[in-house]
Amino acid sequence: EAALCCRYVLCEVVSEDPRCRQCIEDRAVGLAVRDAIGRVHGDYGLACCSISFTVKYVNAYTGTVLLRCRKDFYRLLCSALPFVRQLESRSQRYPCALNTLHVGGTIRTCQKFLIQYNRRQLLMLLQNCTNEEERLCIQKSLLSCSLTEEQSQSGDEEDDDGTE
Prior knowledge:
By secondary structure, this protein is α+β, with helices and mostly antiparallel strands. It folds into 2 domains: 1-105, Alpha-Beta Plaits (2-Layer Sandwich); 107-145. The chain is globular and about 55 Å long. Helix content is 40%, strand content 23%. Strand 4 (86-89) and strand 5 form a beta hairpin.
């Protein structure tokens, strides 16, 4: 039932500091997002967004983050994301920004979007190659982009009414 009223917000963590990658973890991202919501929308906005808000997926290697929130309040969440200024982990603060890539009704639509997005990024890299070795590495990466069919083990993918 929870999946029927949710939106998934796919973001990428953008930072000049390569050390920022080490603190891209569920807890740090969740705290940074909640802090931004509180600063932008106050206690009311924070309370609204906190209902079923969760960090569903984090990939520190690619800087990809998937957030889930109530469908009724995803606009509040999205409007606060540009105000995330840093991630904090183990008393270290790293300046960063969250770039919203896609808003979807299911995890699967976000996965599909991410595959296409990564393909486009790799194609741009391919066009900027300076030698054959770089070109072959990127071509190999492009060929490895696929989405395998898997049975959903949770109810997170029931609501597929698209994006708004």
